[in-house]
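Project standup — Tuesday

K.O.: blocked on the structure for the chain from last sprint. Re-posting the sequence here as requested.
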Amino acid sequence: MLSTRIISLIGVTVAILLLLGLGAKADTNRATFPADFDKYVLYATYDRGSSKEEAFALPETIELSKSGKPLPAGTQLVLGIWTDYKLTGYFVMHKGVDWGLDVEEDRRTGDWHFQQFGLDKQVNRTAIADRCESCHQSQASNDFMFTIDRMRDYLP
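H.V.: unblocked you, prediction finished:
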């Protein structure tokens, strides 16, 4: 009887450790809303009728983009999302050191993480970052950005 309890306890412990280890890696999202968003500039707008997207970055980020090199860790980019002519939320693309290691290799977008935020700039837990990752993977040669050309062409 004692051996059955020990075996059960070991089994439960191993299962919990496996779940914690795998869950932490799969669910990690470090993207935050920039505290200095009021300093960001609008560098591109994508109109789609009653919907549009507005791309924002710090002036320093825009200047760095013109070098042709990947943007550095710490970079945050913001996309304002408009639906039916109303701003409905934001998407943030945030780059960190070795953040790609938090994401399975087949979903990795360099060291970028993605997160959706509401108008209150709080995390929108219903958003699915996987969708961002899967789309941005096609832009590996552009540091995983769709807007890099518009950023490099931006003139204040």
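K.O.: great, moving the ticket to review. The CA atoms of residues 55 and 73 lie 19 Å apart. Residues 6-26 have pLDDT under 50 and may be disordered.
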